[in-house]
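[Protein data]
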Amino acid sequence: MNPKYDVIIIGAGPAGATCALQLRHSGLQVLLIDKSTFPRSKTCGDAIGGRSIKTLLACCPELIVSFRQFSAKTRTTQTRLYINHHKPFEVHWVNEAYCCARHDFDNFLLNAVRQYAPNVTILEDFQVDFVEKQPNIDGICVGNQAQQLFFETKILVGADGAQSIVSKKLTATKLSHRDHVGAVRTYFKGVKDLELNTTEIYISPELLPGYFWVFPLGDGFANVGYGMLTEEISKKKVNLRHTLTNYIQTSPLLKARFADSKQVGKIEGFGLPIGSRRVCMSGDHFLLTGDAAALIDPASGDGISNAIVSGKIAAQTIESAHKIKNFTADFLKTYETDLFKIIYKELIQSTLVLRLGVKMPFLMDVMAFFMGIRWVNRLVKKML
């Protein structure tokens, strides 16, 4: 392995892998590092939105051809929302969307990097615990102190998730409970009446401000989870694991459907830094992508779509920076500008939905009532 690279990406999840794929024709030497060995499990809702597929198609068309033939996924064409005791309504998706366990999806993406990006060196099972700007090399040094293995780069990409070491070492961003969601998920096999093309969302007073989900994965499996704003978890002293189990056991809609099912694996917890605030995402010689940049949709909890978009935009910014040999914070700020041209409007709208849901939960009933009116339902679906 070389001690120096044009680009180092820490984190080989959707954001990091997309960034590497977008750089495949750049002529730059890229090092992609991950602390795990793939395939590995990742606690997540496993829903892959339409923007993910559109972005990957633009980034690497060959990848999408093979993904459409990939068996470890289900196609999602609609989401069914259950709000209190109102009649459920469906939102139909025009863009290509899927459910796929992150164990399979992330491994698929990393294998695509191996196949389509020969300029990318992949280093797995390597825990980065050292990140430091070094003026003498006009760049950043990363590595593992116990192994005494270090690498230098002109641009470092932090694609290393909610607990990003790149963010911790190079920015002053702190956790904000108002802009963070706590969630739990597990897997069930044998849930009755699962529709493979339909994701299910449940909203009721005991779950607010949050929601319960059932996402089908094929072979009789479903990703089942529950998330709530961290600020409210603390205020209300909510036990997420208990709430998830209790809701399944007491909900009139779910009790019979889960009666003969089997839980597979334990209930896992994870944190979601949501995009309801702007955090530092770039600086001299570095960029942050995906969860490390707090880009998760505040209303839906979808993090994969914006992670993939951010990986692509980061790569484009990196190519431009290398062409003019400008790795300063002022120039790399263009990454944020370009990214928010795409995602800013949706983040603002989702943040508004989240804040109103916290302050005025009765609006959920209002929404359910109006969605029950046929012409309103049709109008909303056209807008989506």
Remarks:
- The longest strand covers residues 262-273.
- Residues 84 and 204 are 5 Å apart (CA to CA).
- The mean pLDDT is 93.
- The chain is about 35% helix and 30% strand.
